[in-house]
Design brief:
elongated; about 280 residues; transmembrane; disordered N terminus; membrane; transmembrane helix; about 90% helix; single chain; mainly alpha
Length: about 280
């Protein structure tokens, strides 16, 4: 039994890798800086691509606004026809004019969106290469040079500081672009929904006043259209409401990250001064 235990211990010792040693505090710090550098580069690439995606969404939002404005003009024309006597032929002609006016920019915005989307695919390949520009690479030939190690750490810290600022700027840019797209879409669909409700209420009052079957059918069809537009508006507004509710949490997270970066930078400076 003792021979078996001794044999097992010998085997376990042979399984240990040679020259296995614990990382020194400096090596741990270098490793942490290198990991931070890789993380910043990864975030930079992601946010840079997100900026391109937001540009594509911006043209999509413009197309969405064009459709909403076309619907608004048609509803406004219908509302005017309730006050002013208007033949069905004239009203149909006005509807056709509104469709032509707004379909032209709608098609243009869709074409522009597709073009920007295609350009982004090619640009994303350049971003992968561009993100690695300026990355600090350790020269293995100078591994034992103490001065070079200190210089390497200093370069890593400077690189991380620059990248962290760039990432923060890109995050803010993405946030502003996203909010702008949301505002465009919500404003357009809200105007359309409000006009539908006004027209629907007006037609309901007319149907109640006249009691004619034609007016009742027109009011019912308008109610259906209003309900559909209201659902679309609700679908657009709900994510924005969630975003507003999560804003305090996002602000707290951003403050925590900022404090953590400042504290890390302070410790790095203290550690560097101790080794001077």
């Amino acid at each position: 039994m003792s021979d078996y235990q001794r044999l097992s211990s010998d085997v376990s010792e042979t399984e240990k890798p040679p020259n296995s040693e614990e990382l020194t505090p400096r090596k741990k710090e270098i490793k942490k800086l290198e990991e931070s550098s890789d993380e910043y580069i990864k975030k930079w690439k992601e946010h840079k691509k997100e900026v391109g995606k937001m540009t594509v969404d911006f043209w999509g939002a413009k197309a969405y606004v064009s459709v909403c404005m076309m619907g608004f003009c048609c509803i406004a024309t219908k509302e005017v026809s309730l006050f002013v006597t208007m033949s069905s032929q004239l009203r149909s002609s006005l509807f056709g004019i509104w469709m032509v006016i707004f379909l032209v920019p709608f098609v243009y915005f869709l074409i522009r969106r597709q073009r920007v989307k295609t350009e982004n695919k090619a640009r994303n390949e350049d971003i992968e290469c561009e993100g690695d520009i300026g990355k600090v690479i350790f020269d293995s030939e100078k591994k034992g040079n103490e001065e070079y190690v200190v210089f390497y750490m200093d370069q890593l810290m400077k690189f991380n500081d620059v990248k962290s600022k760039e990432v923060s700027i890109l995050e803010e840019e993405v946030r502003l672009m996203r909010e702008k797209n949301i505002r465009w879409e919500i404003t357009a669909i809200s105007i359309l929904a409000a006009s539908c409700w006004i027209c629907s209420i007006h037609m309901a009052l007319i149907a109640l006043h006249t009691g004619k079957e034609k007016d009742i059918k027109d009011a019912e069809s308008q109610h259906v259209a209003t309900a559909q537009v209201s659902l679309l508006a609700l679908q657009k507004v709900m994510p924005y409401i969630s975003y507003i509710c999560c804003a305090p949490c996002s602000l707290f997270s951003a403050c925590s990250r900022s404090i953590h970066r400042c504290w890390t930078r302070r410790n790095q400076i203290i550690h560097k001064l101790q080794h001077v």
